[in-house]
Amino acid sequence: MSAVKATDVQATVRDAPSTSELFVSFLRLGVTAFGGPSMVAYIRKLVVERKSWMSAREFSEGVAFCQMVPGATAMQTAAYVGLHQAGVAGAAASYIGFGLPAFGLMLVFAVLYAQTGSLPAVVAVFSGLQAVVVAIVVNAAIAFGKTTLKHWLHWLIAIAAAALFRLSVNSLFVILLAGAAGWLLLRGPAAAMQQEGRSTGIPLHKHPLILILAAALGVLAGLYFLAPELFRLAALMGKVDLMAFGGGFASVPIMYHEVVEVNGWLAGPTFMNGIVLGQVTPGPIVITATFIGYMLAGVPGAFIATLGIFLPSFLIVIGVAPFYGRLSASPVFRGVIQGVLCSFVGLLVSVALRFGSQVHWDVIHIVLGAGALLALLRRVDILWVVLGGVILSIGLMPR
Question: For the whole model, what pTM was predicted?
Fold first, then answer.
């Protein structure tokens, strides 16, 4: 115990980093950070072990908060660290630095895909990788299920949500319904987890938050009058971001539903190819929004879609983090969030079935999908699984 306390004290007396140091540190991390939520472990190594910017306890509390708000957990964690160290400017520096490599690479991939996506070799590779994507979603559903479904009531909410999503019921309605079910049914288990509310050590930065929000609203107003198509794209991505409880992967089925099924902007296989590209780039899978934006409206669309998928949840982090100590002590709040997380298990099951229906399941696709799922279940890094899928698709898929 004394060693842990000494570490915590040492972490708290370390000089706070500048915004430029935060940006450079997270930019370097963003270049090499693959694997979705597993990126949180890399952030911890940087922040707690290497830089001693935060204690282990402070970082763990921040991760718990980031898991309970919408958006990609790793991106939110980067913002939380920056907010903790240097206020809103630090949060922006960490957030942008961490996400910039993913945006740049995805934009390059989107341009190349738009130019070569119809070539036989490219089509063959992406056809094989669609089976890998299904395996990735199935593995995510299993992983979310193991950590979320601890009680028969959790299973009940997840199964009901899966059924509603399969019936194409509005995503927001299902999420709200699951939250209401959590509030009614899960307050008992949640109350047992209740803690005394305490400050997170983060002051409320009211004026910078208002300025960022005002700037975002100004951009939206300009798009509404000058570029209605880009306004609809930004609004849709913002909607997806705000509904993405449970981490960035939770936004994928919502994005698929809105982009493919509701608006018909992309065909299902094209969307899945964007997901594949999102897996071979560092950063969160929601960077697929950059691909979608480029396919719809070129470089301006890529910028607007990326801004829409990241900005709302970023504003939530910097606006809500100072109050998290009080919110986390509420059994009602915990029950609602637990219900929402259960619904995402059902959502992932539903989208796995939908993605699976887009694949031509011949022997090669079955081998690729089963092999990818087995590797993921054995905790092989997702980057190697995707790269292996690329190599096998090149070698096995007919041209």
Answer: 0.70
